[in-house]
């Protein structure tokens, strides 16, 4: 018999032990995200675990994102690529799904959204509007260099010729990372996180999170944050300055991230999610990444997105016109209400 219950702080170690062993779990299932994306941002976390004979058999991390003038969205997990149910047995997955919908009803959520890597992971209807771009890594850096193609190799060489330098580190690189990130997000028409979110990530995952910064002299021109978990490296956040893209800093950064992952023995590299056919999609395809369809399962049903997309495009245009100081000030409080 499966007993599903809300997990408590005292269960953090047992939770992470299960996540590290469960094939369906990702880096985003680790307990520390409960604080980083939940309580730290003023949202309510609901971490459900399925137990049998006193042992954890499955987990489902969820965070209720409060939305002004609307009902909250219960999401697993908001603001990142993955989440959803992590459990190897169908009856455990069913028990967690039932508990999730019950929780959504109890808190009056406008929707429940579970972000899985497979359409078959859940019985709910799914949105499949995004893909993750993943490439396999060879056994050594030399083999990786041969697989990326002559165009990318020439761009890496160009970045080296013009004097771009790459630094990898942790908390000490949050400031230059955020310098690039906030400017890139304004260009894209999207509110940017405060730097404390990235500092929390690096501090919460000292053995998994790493920041890369590409500089021209003292100026940061590209920056990315990677997460390492089991055999895979993920890039949830990466940015570059459009004004310096001709120097190929973004390409230089991705080469360094891929090469370091290869050297460390990782076998998969997730370049992040994107919309098929977009510029980001084409850039990631150049690195040899293949599409992995994402399934965002929703309850009570898949919403119509036509009107939402039109409003989103209008807001993006308005955000691009704001001065940088205004987007830096308004970005963090606005971003915490947008669980995309």
Give me some keywords for this one.
alpha+beta, 7-stranded mixed sheet, Aminopeptidase, globular, 11 helices, about 40% helix, about 350 residues
> In the CATH hierarchy, what is the architecture of the largest domain at level 2?
3-Layer(aba) Sandwich
CATH topology of the largest domain: Aminopeptidase
Roughly how many Å is the radius of gyration? 20 Å
Number of strands: 14
Bin the strand percentage: 25-35%
Q: Largest beta sheet: what is the strand line-up?
A: 1-2-3-4-5-14-6
3D structure, described in words:
- This protein is α+β, with helices and mostly antiparallel strands and 340 residues long.
- The chain has 2 domains: 3-129 and 296-309, Gcn5-related N-acetyltransferase (GNAT) (Aminopeptidase, 3-Layer(aba) Sandwich), CATH 3.40.630; 132-293, Gcn5-related N-acetyltransferase (GNAT) (Aminopeptidase).
- The protein is 38% helix and 27% strand.
- The protein contains 11 helices and 14 strands.
- The protein has a 7-stranded mixed β-sheet with strand order 1-2-3-4-5-14-6, sandwiched between helices. It has a 7-stranded mixed β-sheet with strand order 8-9-10-11-12-7-13, sandwiched between helices.
- Strand 9 and strand 10 form a beta hairpin.
- Helix 5 (150-161) crosses helix 8.
- The two termini are 35 Å apart.
- The relative contact order is 0.15.
- The model has no long low-confidence stretch (mean pLDDT 89).
